[in-house]
Amino acid sequence: MIKFPEHFMWGAATSAPQSEGYSLSYGKSASTWDKWFEMQPDKFNSNQGPDTASDTYRLYREDVENMQKIGLNSFRTSIAWTRLIPDGKHVNQVAVDFYRDYFKCLRDAGITPIINLFHFDMPWWLMEKGGWETRESVEAFACYAKTAFELFGDLVDRWTTFNEPIVHIECGYLTGYHYPDIVDFKKAVQVGYHTLMAHTAAVAEFKKVKPDGQIGIILNITPAYAKSDAPEDLAAKQNADLLLAKSFLDPTVLGVIPGALVTLLKQHELLPKTKKDDRQLIADNCVDFIGVNYYQPLRVQAPEKPQFPAQTPGDLYANYIWPERKINPYRGWEIYPEALYDVAMMMKNEYRNIPWYVSENGMGVADEERFMGEDGQIQDDYRIEFMQAHLTQLHRAIEAGSSCFGYHTWTFNDCWSWLNGYRNRYGFYRVDLAHGAKRAMKKSGRWYRELSANNGF
Ligand code: BGP
User: Fold this and answer.
1) Which of 24, 68, 168, 404 is deepest in the core (most CB within 10 A)?
2) Quick one: 102 exposed, middle or buried, by C-beta within 10 A (0-12, 13-18, 19+)?
3) What pLDDT, in 10s, does the model give residues 11-35?
4) Residues having CB within 6 Å of any atom of ligand 1
């Protein structure tokens, strides 16, 4: 039997925009998702917009009971900035009451809340001023963060600033999956820089408001795997590592932006606008822990005909499909549990063995009703196998000394997934949208209860 360390965190993650619903009710203002859906509903799978989330706003008490039934001892969700401070200035008391009761319910049930501040949900009022493109966003985020720490700091000890900052940068400014849906490498870098400074400013506020708490950031990282040892492929790997992993890991854990990243951006005329004191602020505000979201490895090769200076990241590295890969056909993502070992060892060997946890890992599958047994339960054995394979690699890394303190799956209830709506399901509980978002435990939920009770499998 594989046993995990004492007090290991067994949990699951979601986000406010994907779970709460009531996206424009109870005083909440629009985020870019609400506006984008209003402007271009056809972009969204089955016309499912952000209002079609899993109704957690209404059902959170039942959800907390359901968490207990599958043995969760910890849970991550986020606060919707647009619910808490709808106009950027005034706190919405209805939101305060909701989040306080939600977090209190979690604590009373023995479930440690980990609360995140930004999960791709940019307020529309700020987007109208340029969103993360403008430096004003840094101060606005710091003010929101401080407010949240003050309002909920007595109930929440562990906080994170951003979920996967690379994703809103790439998807919004390079690949068209998030608003504003443009392709502009230079703006993408500036957006990334302001996101980093917003994170840094929030950590600085946290240290003042809640010095006894712990703050981290959630990153989607793995080391990049090069197609071959040819120098061009290795250069592509280095570029990908710098842009996608080290860009946030180095400043947040080690307190410095890597010199090689600055050189690369300079060569390609992509350096962002900065302020004099930024470097010191970064150095002074490292995180206490890291969350690693891991779904698929990053495989790269040298780009075929790169432009100089680079117009997109595709001029610095190209994606590579490993011929032997195993794939989740619904999501199109490679399944490669070994990378979890590699990222764990990277945290140990290159990032001062900082405490970290797996903050998301999971498998999205379409049309899961195909797997419904006679008793009405979804028999999602594929998901159990997926978790077992990843946990085996994680355990190997812990045995080798990596400081991993927990494992959270994506996700607890089936939830809304951006442009993909409800196509792929990830939850331990099925959500029946046709019947008032009714929840039903899948086989994986039962398995997770055993896992958590035995602290291993
Ligand atoms: C992560 C995000 C989540 C979630 C998950 C699954 O990158 O943090 O918000 O959506 O991926 O991916 P998807 O929903 O695109 O299938």
Assistant:
1) 168
2) buried
3) 999 999 999 999 999 999 999 999 9
4) 15, 18, 163-164, 167, 220, 293, 331, 360, 364, 410, 417, 420, 424
